[in-house]
Design brief:
Layout: E1 5-13, H1 16-26, E2 31-37, E3 42-49, E4 52-59, H2 65-73, E5 76-83, H3 87-96, E6 107-108, E7 114-118, E8 128-132
Parallel strand pairs: 1-4, 5-8
Antiparallel strand pairs: 1-5, 2-3, 3-4, 6-7, 7-8
The structure holds zinc ion.
Zinc ion (ZN) binds at residues 8, 10, 55, 79, 81, 129.
Length: 134
Amino acid sequence: MKPTYIEHIGIAVTNLDDSIGYYEKVLGLECYAIEEVPDQKVRTAFFRVGDTKIELLESTDPEGPIGKFIEKKGPGIHHLAFAMDDVAESLKHAADQGIRLIDETPRKGAEGLKIGFLHPKSTFGVLTEFCGDE
Ligand code: ZN
């Protein structure tokens, strides 16, 4: 049930293209994918830093989760994603510990991974994502 590594850090941005410029020009990282996830009303851009990815999230709808997040808190770190061997089992384990879940069961996220979120009210303020192939 232990995370194997930090899969990605999700960062809410107001403008994907401007943000990509920063990660590429200043940090020297390479954006290897841009993907729209209509389900979550976002456009995402990915960078690799070792085993971990940076996932930039631009809202495509002010009523979507990222649109609401930016309105409330402004751009910045949005969530932390742990790689888990078994996302469904890990969500169940968290629920058994009294953690409030946003996703009771895994759903499909960017890059075809299975994902599930834990509610930040239960995780000391950090929106936490589990993701993996299973
Ligand atoms: Zn994520």
